[in-house]
Design goal:
single chain; 173 residues; alpha+beta; 3-stranded antiparallel beta sheet
Length: 173
């Protein structure tokens, strides 16, 4: 299920970030969890965990309350949790986190954010929605290796190719 994290824009012009938490000024830490190593976001509403090894930087032109809400929605969508799964309703264009065992709804995404994060999936299953699907991330999204060093575009592309295309060096059975 593709999840899009768009550049939330507070206003026109380039985004402004908390530079003290951006590379090379900041090296994030990782914690070991039942799902493996997970990145730790700094204690600020302007930086969200966005997966196991990614941070999403929120434009500081948002007030703290709005930035905190954006951060919560990003983390809800992108931080893995062994006990839950995401249910996407492409008829009502909404999404929920459900308990993996009971299927009980634990939390509903803010509908606006659900339509942003899950637009590709919703559009695929319900083309009549015609939800906009985002553009470039403009530096909001940074992927790190396990040493806290930002990944290069070559590393990111190599990882994407490894998951999709078998190595040429592997023997065929």
């Amino acid at each position: 299920m593709p999840i899009l994290v768009p550049s939330f824009r507070a206003c026109e012009g380039p985004a402004i970030f908390l530079e003290k938490y951006r590379p090379p000024n900041y090296v994030p830490s990782f914690v070991d969890t039942e799902l493996g190593l997970q990145i730790v976001a700094p204690d600020t509403p302007y930086v969200a965990r966005a997966g196991r090894s990614n941070l999403y930087f929120i434009d500081t032109r948002y007030d703290e309350k709005t930035a905190q809400h954006i951060k919560e929605q990003i983390e809800l969508a992108l931080v893995p949790d062994a006990d839950t799964h995401t249910y996407i309703d492409d008829i009502t264009a909404t999404a929920y986190k459900r308990n993996g065992d009971t299927n009980k709804v634990l939390v509903q995404f803010d509908p606006v954010y659900a339509r942003i994060f899950f637009a590709p999936t919703m559009n695929k299953h319900n083309p009549m929605l015609k939800l906009p699907e985002g553009g470039p991330d403009d530096g909001h999204f940074v992927r790190y290796n396990q040493n806290g060093i930002p990944k290069t575009m070559e590393e990111i592309e190599a990882e994407a190719n490894m998951c999709c295309y078998p190595s040429q060096d592997t023997e065929k059975e």
